[in-house]
C-alpha cells in the first residue's frame, strides 16, 4: 500500500467518524456537537503548523556538502578553461 493510499484511508475513516458523530448517529449532547463542527478546520490548521515546523526544522539542520561544492567549483574552472581555449570570453 502506498503512502497516498494510507493517507486517503485515514482521511476517509476520520471523515466518516466525524460525519457520523456530527450528523447525529449517536445521541451526543449539544455541547459536544458544537465542538465537533469546527474540528476539521482545527485539524487542518494543526497539520499546516506541523508542516511549517517540519520544513523549518529541516532547513535549520541542513548540512552543507563542502566536498561536493569544491568538486563542482573545480569542474566549473575546468570548463571555463576549456571554453577559453576554444575562444569564448568571460
TrEMBL record:
UniProt entry tagged with the keyword Cell cycle: no
Entry GO terms, CC: dolichol-phosphate-mannose synthase complex; endoplasmic reticulum membrane
Transmembrane segments: 35-53
One protein family per Pfam: DPM3
UniProt GO MF annotations: glycosyltransferase activity
Keywords, in A-Z order: Endoplasmic reticulum, Glycosyltransferase, Membrane, Signal, Transferase, Transmembrane, Transmembrane helix
Topology relative to the membrane: Multi-pass membrane protein
Record keyword Transferase present: yes
GO biological process, one term: GPI anchor biosynthetic process
InterPro entries for this protein: DPM3 (IPR013174)
Biochemical pathway: Protein modification; protein glycosylation
Subcellular location: Endoplasmic reticulum membrane
Superkingdom of origin organism: Eukaryota
Signal peptide (residue range): 1-19
Subunit field text: Component of the dolichol-phosphate mannose (DPM) synthase complex.
Family, per entry: Belongs to the DPM3 family.
Biological function: Stabilizer subunit of the dolichol-phosphate mannose (DPM) synthase complex; tethers catalytic subunit to the ER.
Protein name in the entry: Dolichol-phosphate mannosyltransferase subunit 3
